[in-house]
Amino acid sequence: MKENSEKLAFAKIECADNLSAVEDAVYVLGGKWKLRIIVALVSGYYRFNEIQRAVQGISPRVLSNELKMLELNGLVKRTVDSEKFPVLVEYLPTEYAETLKELVSMLGKWGRNHKKRITLSV
Amino acid sequence: MKENSEKLAFAKIECADNLSAVEDAVYVLGGKWKLRIIVALVSGYYRFNEIQRAVQGISPRVLSNELKMLELNGLVKRTVDSEKFPVLVEYLPTEYAETLKELVSMLGKWGRNHKKRITLSV
């Protein structure tokens, strides 16, 4: 009995721990756009307009905010090449953003599979 | 030159494909709560009040909506045991929800790591 309640207490702590870790990740990556922006960056779209075209439906204002948030979290680096005219501004995925590659590809796989599943069941 | 532009076209199609798959996944799992609810369910919280306590900050109304959405997507099964008094309603993760386990644990790992990183850099 005691062992059982200890096990339960442990499961609860573990769950709370997982919950807060997932919460942290969702805080950084969550929302409608961030992961999609990261896919676009990793796919080689670096300029604002390119990214906006790739991530369909996002407004310039929201994209600008999202890029700032991603920069604050160390996932994007904004570079300015003022030698060029017009000045070339690029948003490059950082090395740290590479840590998301596997996660994003897994999410993509799941999404593809889920779409098939939902389409078949309707 | 031609080969290059072909490559580019392929990369674009691949990117669009990934983007829409990630979009599908984010549509089902995105938002502030869904993944956290799934963590709670997988951790063994099945009753409405239990889940609400585990997912801190969620209102009953939002939780109820989120559970309905998850049920529509085949990730949760609502069971009613009317033999009991009061009637026992439970929300059980489906077998299909198991396909998210790896994804969620990866997300949790990333979140834990990211928090460390951010805490150290401040």
Strand percentage of chain A lies at: 5-15%
Mean pLDDT of chain A equals: 86
In this structure, how is the largest beta sheet of chain A organized? 2 strands, antiparallel
Oligomer: homodimer
**Helicity of chain A, in percent?**
55-70%
Number of helices of chain A: 5
Uncertain segments of chain A? none
Largest interface, chains and sizes: A-B, 50 and 50 residues
User: What strand order characterises the main sheet of chain A?
Assistant: 1-2
Structure description:
2 copies of one chain form a homodimer. Chain A is mainly α. In chain A, 64% of the residues lie in helices and 10% in strands. Chain A has 5 helices and 2 strands. Chain A has a two-stranded antiparallel sheet. Chain A starts with a helix and ends with a helix.
Topology summary:
The structure is a homodimer of 122-residue chains.
Chain A: H1 2-29, H2 34-42, H3 48-54, H4 60-72, E1 76-81, E2 88-93, H5 101-121
Antiparallel strand pairs in A: 1-2
What are the key terms here?
homodimer, 122 residues, mainly alpha, two-stranded antiparallel sheet, 5 helices
What is the compact description of this entry?
The structure is a homodimer of 122-residue chains. Chain A is mainly alpha-helical and 122 residues long.
